[in-house]
Amino acid sequence: MKENYTNIPVEKLKFAQKKDFLHDSKFETKPVSYFQGAFKRFCKNKGAVVAACVIAVLVLFAIFAPVFTPYQPAYYDMSYCFVTPRSNFFADRGFDFWDGCKVKNTNQVGYLKDLALSLETGREVIKHGDVTISGEDNNNYTYRYDTYYGVGFGKYKIISEAEFKDIQRYQDETGRQVLYPVVKSSERPTLEKNKYDANIYYKMENPKASVIKPKLDKEGNIIPNYWKHEEGKASSLVPEYTSLRIEGEDGVEEKGKTYFYAYGRKVDGGIEVRTEYYEYYTYLHTQVYKDGIGEPTFWFGTTETGKDIFACLAYGARFSFIFAIAVAAANFIFGVIWGSISGYYGGRTDLIMERITDVLSAVPTMIVITLLKYHMGASSQVLVLFIAFFATGWIGMSYVTRVQFYRFKNQEYVLAARTLGARDARIMFKHIFPNGIGTIVTKFALVIPAMIYSETSLSYLGIINLEAGNTTSVGTLIAAGQRSITSGAAYVAIFPCVFLVFLMLSFNLFGNGLRDAFNPSLRGTED
Amino acid sequence: MYMFKYVMKRLGLMVLTFFIIFTMCFVLIKLLPIPTNVLPGQDPEIVMKTLEGRGWITNIREGENGVWLYDRVPIFLQYATYIKRVVTKLDFGLITTYGEYLHMDIWDVFKSHMPPTILINICASLIGVPIGLGFGILAALKKNKWQDQVINIFIILLISVPGIVLALMIQYVFCFKLGWFPLTMATSNEYFTWPVFRTMIPAVVALCLGSVAGYARTTRAELSEVLTSEFMLLARTKGLTKKQAIFRHAMRNSMVVIFPMILSEFIAVLHGSLIIEKMFGVNGLGGLYLNSITFQDYDFFMMLSGFNVLIGLTAGIVTDISYGFIDPRIRMGAK
After folding, report:
1. Are A461 and B296 in contact (CB < 8 Å)?
2. Are strands A265-267 and A101-106 parallel, antiparallel or unpaired?
3. CB-based contact B168 A486, cutoff 8 Å
4. Of A5, A314, A498, B200, which is least packed with CB atoms within 10 Å of its CB?
5. Does a structural domain hold residue B202?
6. Whether the Cβ atoms of residue A395 and residue A354 lie closer than 8 Å to each other
7. CA atoms of A179 and A238, how far apart (whole Å)
8. How do residues A478-489 score in pLDDT, each as one tens digit?
9. For A364, which of B279, B298, B312 is closest by C-beta distance?
10. Does A420 touch chain B if contact means CB atoms closer than 8 Å?
């Protein structure tokens, strides 16, 4: 029941807390430390969280990608230069995407060559066999061309007799055709540049021509021109061959006689053979080198020298991260010590130390690197890079630390600590440094991408060459990509560029997020 | 008077810094083995005599097996000779290993490569600065509206995407895919004719993208800060239109930060951008510097390094001093 009183009657008056002492009630909430608060604020910044995830993905890529690929940065295979990215998942399911193919525009001769290759090996050199013919005289052929199978036979190869036998053994075991019949040497093209072209197994219109055009029969088919012999009547130059035959076990019937093809030709120093490079490659890597590489599958394609881009990028990224973190850590340690001494003591010490950093910061990194390179030689490029980045890199860190020390050193709590007898070192690293750590850590996070970018630019410019060891740099890849633009191989540049863009973008967002989280008052201001 | 003292102090420090850096560079280079390689068709005696004439070595004599022996001149003596030649005759020596310009005078080669670098950098600044300022002003005036957000996204993208990737994208899209421009810049000297100027455009665009982003960001930050200050309200209360208030009062104040940036940018046009010049085949100072490094042409490298350090220092000092001239309230270096 509610009553309105103008005056509270005496008997109704009660002290609220007559007996209880007035205690501060305990906080119901949990205490939020500086770092917890920073973490909370950081999590609210969606861009920064996404950036952190992207960085995590990139770091995981750098750590684990080298484990998953058998290729090494030092690996190269000139036969497979400029093959396009291929993933078996897409290639095997017949997608026109990430399948190691590219759109090829060519004339009739080029088309016939690819067609002949696919007819002989039974591989889809022309994807799905789909060809678009256009142009005024129907001489413009467009189709998806498989860059892996398109390598075909390459050139005639001379292998040893033992290898010849071993390949036969491999063929018998796996049922995969590596060796194909050869063409009699007198029936090959005559010009030097076409003479060793093992892709020409057919009859030609003109063996002396510069561009070899296959001769077609009345139905428009290609006529094979293998070196053949009757059973038991082989030339002494034909080596013994007991393995798989494309003509079948019983040979081919022609004009009432049974012929067998020759699978090699004895020459000085071994046997000249035609090997389908795709199978030969598989054979070489599984049987001879045993380096974990099976069929050629380059996830990101290859460069102009036949290097695997995926492996190069993975190892390059790994190197970049390790290197950047190592340099940043060295800079951090030295810069923080220098900056705290300079900032804490101030006065003349500060002045002298500042002049030293002034001079050092005016030295361009390029000069340091070049001079170090001249003095230390080309063999220790990583060390050169490390020293050069360290020599001028710590200045930024020391500057940030110095400002933080100036900010805090005259505050009352420092005075209190000193009054209680704390030594300088204790005040510096127990009392002042933890207060400025937010800003300093932010600087650390922003230094890493800058470091990676510097290293990338230097290796792009060719001043630093990390190819010497079994590593490489993203910059080297970008330089290769730029050279490949005119060859129409844009993918060489795309992957390292995408990596670099994601790295820089996410590190920038991440750094800004960190800064906002540690210093909420600075929110929104730039730099 | 205060300003004069400050400028003098800065200039003195700059000269000192330059002297220290250049001396270190000189000493470190002179500690390297002297390049006495004799090219085919060259008389070794002439090579030796040339080195002696430069003041690097002395007391040359022919030893056994055609090996030439010599004594090194002490480094500080070499340094004195070098400085004397440079100061009195602008003689930086000859090019010794850089094949293309072998035996040519360093200063002449340097001069002949200046125009392309300066030209593309000036074009890039002339295009980039106004566009950057324009975007920055627009973003500040329309703060938190869609225009601001679009510009902001562009700024973040342009700043975060590395210049190397941007340049490569420009080269791929405009030079290769669309075929509007050739892949590299022409080496002809007639820069102001259309066929040659056309070849410069991709490099100019690649160069100016960075400065567009930089200026837009700074202008936006500065101008939006000034726009919220009290004196803007006063200006409007006095009866100025919004336009007048912005251009006569706000812009002037935000220029205090932006103008020195522009000034130092125009000094730094002498700096060749190594990446852009390499990518677009610009026949300028950047490429020269790069080649002097790869060919290990010590004298040439020293000269170009010294020049770059000097440009960098000058740009820095001009920025600092111009603050004081633009805004008399600012007393740089004051206690």
Report:
1. no
2. unpaired
3. no
4. A5
5. yes
6. no
7. 14
8. 888 888 888 878
9. B312
10. no
Find the CATH number of the domain harbouring B145. 1.10.3720.10
Nearest-angstrom CA–CA distance, A141 and A143:
7
Tokens linked to A94: 């017949």
The tens digit of pLDDT for each residue in A48-64 reads: 999 999 999 999 999 99
C-alpha–C-alpha distance, residues A226 and A247, integer Å: 11
Query: For residue A33, what are the CA distances in angstroms to A24, A27, A440, A518?
Result: 21, 14, 18, 12
Please state, in angstroms and rounded to a whole number, the distance separating the CA atoms of residues A218 and B52: 81
Residues facing residue A469 across a β-bridge: none
Q: How far apart are CA A213 and CA A204, in angstroms?
A: 6
Give residue A522's pLDDT.
Answer: 56
| CA separation, residue B74 to residues A17, A490, B25, B58, B84 (Å) | 94, 54, 16, 10, 16
| B118, part of any domain | yes
Please tell me the class of the A52-58+307-522 domain: mainly alpha
Domain assignment present for residue B23? The answer is: no
Total domains in chain B come to: 1
d(CA B115, CA A241): 70
**What's the whole-model pTM score?**
0.85
Report the amino acid identity of residue B233: L
Say if residue B240 is exposed, middle or buried (CB neighbours under 10 Å; 0-12, 13-18, 19+).
middle
> Do the domain assignments include residue B87?
no
Q: Which residues pair with B61 in a beta bridge?
A: B69
Q: Which residue of B has its CA nearest to A479?
A: B279
Q: Where are the domains of chain A?
A: 52-58+307-522, 90-151, 157-289
- What domain range is B277 assigned to? 107-326
User: A412 CB contacts (<8 Å, ≥6 apart)?
Assistant: none
Alpha helices in A17-160 (DSSP H): 34-44, 46-68, 88-92, 108-121
Residue closest to B107 by CA, chosen among B122, B121, B89? B89
Q: What is the pLDDT of residues B56-73, one digit of tens each?
A: 788 778 777 777 778 888
Nearest to A362 among B21, B162, B294 (CB): B21
List the beta bridge partners of residue A265: A272
| Separation between Cα atoms, residue B184 and residue B172, nearest integer Å | 11
Decide: residue A495, CB within 10 A, 0-12 exposed, 13-18 middle, 19+ buried.
buried
CB-nearest to A453 from B156, B162, B289 is: B162
Query: Does residue A271 sit in helix, strand or coil?
Result: strand
Residue A114 phi/psi, 5-degree rounding, is -65, -40
